[in-house]
Queue: 4 jobs
Job 1
Amino acid sequence: MVDFSLGFGYNAPKKAEGVHAMREFIIGKNDAGQRVDRFLSKAMPLLPGALLQKYIRIKRVKCNGARCQRDQRLAEGDVLQVYINDEFFEQPREDNLFLTLFQPKLEILYEDENILLTDKRPGMVVHADETEKVNTLINHIQAYLYQKREWNPKWENAFAPALCNRIDRNTGGIVIAAKNAETLRILTAKIRDREITKKYLCVALGVMNPPEGRLECFLLKDEGKKQVTVYHRPVPGGKSAVTLYRTVRRQGALSLVEAELLTGRTHQIRASFADAGHPLLGDGKYGKGDINRKYSETKQALYSYYIKFDFPTDAGILEYLRGRVFQIKKVPFVEKYFGKGIAE
């Protein structure tokens, strides 16, 4: 268990860590009458509310040099002294919104000095989009590493911890994060060159025939609709998509299928299976609404559950990962519909 108070603390402040000895706010006429905590929440929007309350409680916020209470009313001319990390005084931007996450929520599958593997739950976006800016996977990862004091934007010229792969909002599973620039460079190349095997589990409607095989098509992405169209011939702008599949179990009208991506295209599994006549349960774009409603599923039953670092070529500082396999043991829809865990 990580003590998340450490990263935001004010222990032995050092300039190199981006900590300032003190910042002052002189209360003017328009700010008078406000509570201390409410004034500071407006003055420092990047500072999480829970952390602000903690700082007031442990005397990192003082009024006129003396201890103050969170509900203390400010008077014109009062001077608030605040002892916190410099970055909390900055204006909110997309690249520093991770600071507002006081308690990052991550399910960490594996972590070392170079990489972090996390099990992203369905419903969370990996990067900011038009629907969500703060509660993103990358923000939770950056907040986690910041609070562990493994990374601070003040220490870097350009690098920030980054995701090496992405999965859709409503898809769950393993996402790889790079903690340093060299790791990001290596893994980006390995993913591009298909030196990392990624397998998914999904619930397909009906019976796959044959039970094991290969789906090949061309996918043309419509950016406006955020959807792809399947073609069985080359089309301008279309990209080839190849998916291997294997039926693992069957239960009534549902099939548990393992899919391996030989190409990595947007919505590849979802669109390919739907085109083959076996859309994924819960898929709102390519699936069957009446069946989804029957099972009360609003998210596609698709999970990136397996990653193998194959590395047939040199992996530099990540050589120690060669041949390593990471697998999620419990996928919610497997137990829900098939009553068993995932076999080793």
Job 2
Amino acid sequence: MFAIIETGGKQYRVSEGDVLDVERLEAEVGAAVTFKVIMTGDGDNIVAGAAAESKSVTATVVRQYKAKKVVVFKYKAKKNVRKKQGHRQYYTRVKIESIA
């Protein structure tokens, strides 16, 4: 059985036991979280729309971390204009426990 969930403005296809990195969730390590379900499927049986919203996907937070730094460097040629900036995105690693 699989489900399509939505979190952080993105959609993910998950099954029970999957480990997934999503954008940061405000939850402690070991806490249970639930996700908005868009679609579920089991073989040829597909459920989408309003019927899928009654389903739930429960996951456990495994880790909170920051990704590697991305360097953003902007410049204008021949003008001596340079701007260097770094960014590290926050992520939450979750393990899908159940699709009900």
Job 3
Amino acid sequence: MKRGLYVGRFQPFHNGHKSVIDGLAKEVDELIIGIGSADSSHDVKHPFTAGERVLMITSAIENLEIPFYVIPLEDVKRNALWVAHVKSMVPPFDTVYTSNPLVIRLFKESGINVESPPMYLRQSLSGTEIRRKMIAGEPWKGFVPKEVVSVIEEIDGVSRIRQVSKSD
């Protein structure tokens, strides 16, 4: 059995993330989705809480055809210790899937197999760009699964990100 770990911040979970997960579901028997920076929220880069991101992800992939686990991962302020921290928080895994250069480096230095899944429409499907659209009042709903739109509306997420993006 092959179990993979897909690590991301998912701020917010978008159609690119969904596309990667759909692809990984064909490669692994079980998937762990690690929500990075779980201890951060209510700022422009991290507007959503770990719990809100768990809700976004689980509702958007509830029909995934393989077992999956969504696990928040707090940051550790010492990168050399982060992989050990992650390993203590998640079930055992065979391969890490990420495109984040730091995460790739940290896991490779720990002797763990890392693969970078192909990104789907990366220019338009990035959390940074979607958050920018929310702040600017531009259309953003088409870039995330409908279940994520529902969560963001339920928590008044657009209003939150606009508020925290202001300066005093």
Job 4
Amino acid sequence: MLGTHGREIAKTVFTAPARALARVGVTPNQVTIVGTAVTVCAAILLLGTGRWISGPIVLGIVLFADSLDGTLARLTGKSSQFGAFLDSTLDRLGDGAVFGAITYALARQSTSSGLQSWLLIAAVVSMVGAATVPYARARAEAVGAEASGGIAERTDRLVIALVAVFCVGIGLPQWVLAMALTWTALASLITVVTRIQSAYRSIDKR
């Protein structure tokens, strides 16, 4: 998974910046909130308005820096249950903003074709999946079950979608984005089903 490898790289890269933030008194929760605000603003102001070159670049940088708050929490010893809750909750806002902005930008296009309908359907399903995948796990854990697994983490889905948006932004045909969003939508659905099955087995054992 991209997220697994990316976290190790990010941990190495952001250790020094995290130490600098710790020295000036910045908290992990503040980093989480600022990162989400930047994500939402970049999604709305760049992706949503069709700036499909600068938008993915900015969001890619923010996505890579997503583990900065976790690194800061470990260095300062300020890891907490509320911090984990806040980070997970605000991630959902960021994901919704990204896929919502892509959907909005596609809906604003004046063309009406089978490809356009395909793009919109895949984008909407991806947006719904971005919220449902983590919800399935969280709801299962709330009832004492385990619901992990799936074929794509959050990072995988975001990176593939943003890379495809960038490719269209530099002139590649829109079917590239259609394929990427289709994969994202299917990966989300498969992951949800996988987690439902995992939760069922976990509950059934009890």
